[in-house]
Amino acid sequence: MIESQWMNLKNCISRLIHNCKNLRELNQIHSHVIVSPNLSPNDRSFLVSRLIFYLCTISDSTASLPYANKIFKFITHPSVFVYNAMIRANATKIKDPNSRESLFLYKEMLGSGLVPDCITLPFVLKECSNRFDGLMGRVIHAHAVGFGYEVDVYVQNALISLYSECGVLEDAMKVFDEMPHRDVVSWNSMIVGCLRGGELDTALRLFREMKERKNIITWNSVITGLVQGGRAKDALDIFHEMQTLADEKGNTVGPDKVTVASTLSACASLGAVDQGKWVHSYLERSGLECDMVIGTALVDMYGKCGCIETALEVFCGMPVKDVLAWTAMISVLALHGYGDKAFEVFMEMEEAKVRPNAVTFVGLLSACAHSGLVQKGRWCFYKMKDRHFIEPQAQHYACMIDILGRAGLFAEAEELIRSMPMRPDVYVWGALLGACQLHGNVELGEKVARYLIDSEPNNHAFYIVLCDLYGKCGRFDDRKRIRGLMEEQGVRKSVPGSSMIEVDGVVYEFSVKGSSEMMPLAALESVLMVLSNEMKIETVTSSGIIE
Predict the structure, then answer these.
(1) SS3 content of the chain, % helix, strand, coil (to 5)
(2) In angstroms, rounded to a whole number, what is the distance separating the alpha carbons of residues 27 and 64?
(3) Are 393 and 358 in contact (CB under 8 A)?
(4) What is the Cα–Cα distance from 134 to 142, expressed in whole angstroms?
(5) Which of 62, 132, 131, 73 is nearest to 105 (CA)?
(6) DSSP state letters, 489-518
(7) What's the rounded Cα separation, in Å, for the pair 547 and 535?
(8) Which of 121, 180, 274, 527 could form a disulfide with 505 if both were Cys (CB 3.0 to 4.6 A apart)?
(9) Closest Cα partner for 163 from 175, 153, 154?
(10) Residue 221's closest CA among 235, 232, 240?
């Protein structure tokens, strides 16, 4: 009878812990567990383990983990269950990259004679991933083999993530290839690892080979990874494939806000405004919330596609704007030479009490460069430090050199370069070289170009600019000599020139090597010849020579 009452009390307190709303309630329950005379030692130990589990896995309060640590210190013989909860919490809730708490707990667990299970090892491996500690990860990998968990899917998934995070894709792929059973997490982890490691083709191959049903993480990882890897057109193709499958099968995963934001970024990279408009309309039809991230992506997309008015309309319609949204709008205006308007938006940003960041000032300085606003550029460059306490970086100096160089103020530009607290990078010198090319300053341009060629002898752009400078001043022998130097050293464009055009919502790409997506190069040349002849006829007709 008494044992039954104890059991009922234990179950009742366990349910209270599970349904607990906040730490204040939990503290009261904890007190009752400590002082209650109607709980056996085993029941009290069980309930304390439930308290730790709640604090480590369910509660999202910042005070949960310190509270759990205090309880843990008073447990004489923690079980594997308790160690797992504590290791999990320390691996997932502590963001400090120098933290080693999970590893200390794991070592303590082994020292007490307990054997880790398939729950322990993945979270210890996660701690190694967080710290990019591949060496310790290999030690834990050896433990997994020793304890017989080398073929456990959770452990193997954690190993793939570990090796991918540490940049050892070969080992991650080896673990993946040797897996007897793979789940969707296995495929996602390997695909994300390849995308982060720059192996985009391998990631796409795995994506195509994936037998498990793709979830939203799969689609978003591939689309985002391709955009960030410079393969925006492929990202759009994957997005359309996702849409097609969602239309054909009602149970297929549809796009979410992350998908939309990444796809808009792809449209911005390609200048595919029709596709971007379609994504915008899909956003409105689907009922997805247009939050700050998507609003900022829309501003960026419309701006880069040349639709300034629409970008401003979207921007003004955003109820809440963070520094990224304001910076995106300023950068869009800068891109198209609306310098004064960019400063108007900046003044509104300050009135809204939003603090600008370093990227904001890159946008403002770019606006000054594209609009010829030298005085405002000087003001902006010096005020970013005095008023906003932002130290100018190399990219800010490059923008300022661009402003001065476009205005022909070479002496001031050179003096600014000499005053830089850091070593001028290729972008700073490149801005000065571009100004020399613009104004035909051969003497300075020759000196800068030679320095850049010595720094990056395989960069074809510097040779081309120097040849152009020589050509403009009639130094054709020097131009021929530089051309010969390029051929002698095998310097050429590593990527052939290409163009993209959007026709009826479809983006076509073609290059000097031709393209399988469009008509053959010979046919394109034929069309260009016809157009050229038509233009000549129209020119002659308009001049009155032929009626």
Answers:
(1) 70, 0, 25
(2) 11
(3) yes
(4) 12
(5) 73
(6) HT---SS--EEEEEETTEEEEEETT--SSS
(7) 15
(8) 274
(9) 175
(10) 235
DSSP secondary-structure letter at 180?
S
- Tokens standing for 163? 């090796």
CA distance 58 to 56: 6
CB 121 within 8 A of CB 136: no
Q: Is the alpha carbon torsion for 505, 506, 509, 514 positive or negative?
A: negative
Tens digit of each residue's pLDDT, the chain (547 residues):
445 555 577 888 888 888 888 888 888 888 888 888 888 888 888 888 999 998 898 888 888 899 999 999 989 899 999 999 999 999 888 777 777 889 999 999 999 999 999 999 999 999 999 888 899 999 999 999 999 998 999 999 999 999 999 999 999 999 999 999 999 999 999 999 999 999 999 999 999 999 778 899 999 999 999 999 989 999 999 998 888 876 555 556 888 899 999 999 999 998 889 899 999 998 888 888 888 999 999 999 999 999 999 999 999 999 999 999 999 999 999 999 899 999 999 999 999 999 999 999 999 999 999 999 999 999 999 989 888 899 999 999 999 999 999 999 999 999 999 999 999 999 999 999 999 989 988 889 889 988 888 888 888 888 888 888 888 888 888 888 888 888 887 777 655 555 656 555 555 565 555 555 555 666 667 777 888 777 777 665 555 544 4
Residue entry with tokens 């540490």: 166
Q: What is residue 123's three-state secondary structure?
A: helix
Extract long-range pairs of 171-179: CB within 8 Å, 24+ residues apart: 179/151, 179/153
Q: How far apart are CA 214 and CA 207, in angstroms?
A: 9
According to DSSP, the residues that pair with 503 across neighbouring strands are 506
Locus of tokens 């949960």: 64
3-state secondary structure of 287: coil
Kindly report the number of other CB atoms within 10 A of residue 308's CB atom: 17
Question: pTM score, two decimals?
Answer: 0.78
- The structure tokens listed for 53 are 């589990």
Please return the burial class of 379, using the count of CB atoms within 10 Å of its CB with bins 0-12, 13-18 and 19+: middle
Owner of token pair 């349910």? 15
Distance CA 177, CA 182 (A): 10
Q: β-strands 498-503, 506-511: how paired?
A: antiparallel
- Distance CA(290)–CA(110), nearest Å, equals 50
Amino acid in position 62: T
Alpha helices in 147-272 (DSSP H): 153-165, 169-177, 184-196, 200-209, 216-228, 232-248, 257-270
